[in-house]
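Worked example (supplementary).
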Amino acid sequence: MNDTHSLDTLIQALRRLPGVGVKSAQRMAFHLLQHDRAGALVLARALQQAAEHTGHCERCHTFTEGRICAICANAERDATRLCVLETPADQAAMERTGAFHGLYFVLMGRLSPLDGVGPRDIGMQQLMERAQDGVVQEVILATSFTAEGEATAYAISEALQRRGVRVTRLARGVPVGSELEYVDLGTIAHALADRR
Amino acid sequence: MNDTHSLDTLIQALRRLPGVGVKSAQRMAFHLLQHDRAGALVLARALQQAAEHTGHCERCHTFTEGRICAICANAERDATRLCVLETPADQAAMERTGAFHGLYFVLMGRLSPLDGVGPRDIGMQQLMERAQDGVVQEVILATSFTAEGEATAYAISEALQRRGVRVTRLARGVPVGSELEYVDLGTIAHALADRR
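After joint prediction of all chains, the assembly is encoded as:
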């Protein structure tokens, strides 16, 4: 129906959000139009702002609005330890433990040949250069303990050890099959202490 | 952190969507920024368009961009029957059955005193006027079969019957395709009482 064109367009657009199907998209659209038009405009502006202003840190690849993110720019962090993670959410979880004071490299994904995600997509080359800056003494692999996360850790570990870089992995205190983002903080802290 | 201000703002804004908590909002924001920036801009535009151009039909209160929605404006619909529903989603479901050819009145909610939703919020007065236009011969109540939906149907039914309007309610019964063993007892009892 032509008289609900912009509503239909909104429902279609909401379906681009991960985990949102037709029913959820309808519910969201109706809610915003009926009860929270201000919220719809706030969200519209936030989406545009974030899409236009958020880039990647040149050093660690996480999201940032500047050239270098706040953590990489912080001179008080221990630059000899480099923690490799899959996503900014994983990084946020690690930061919340308060147990790690080094720097990060965020892969923004993980190796997944079936989905066409190869070494280039996770910045493997940049990670190699980053890890051999002459300051980093230890690379701590904190990818997820899933099949793909383990494969990613293995590939990175192989490549770094070939270049003589010391590599450790979060201890298997983290339950196998779970994603770091959802693990309780104490477990993450223990796994950090027991890294091998 | 200031260097992720627009990302944080986006995550907060996404939480205004119904059913979206912190984790989902993070996941959505990361997904859009990492894999679908075009989608973020499409969604931003769709939100703005819908919020600015979608209003309510003067006759049935559903969402429309014109003064009158396509169904109300359709002269081929049976104007003697008026079906009262809670939401545009319910209306869409009724339309998909292909079994109803009359007109609608969409309450855009249901009576819920605990949430502060009263008769005025569901357009009770407009419904009374709509039902007494001299053409409508039957008002079919198709609100949900929940406590609030039933209370809403009861209130509307009382008010309309006092004005001499013929009111019917969707039949309660066993859902098509279900096995009796798994149907709740109240439904079976109603289906038995309403047998035909």
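Two points are worth noting when inspecting this output. The mean pLDDT of chain A is 90. DSSP finds eight helices and six strands in chain A.
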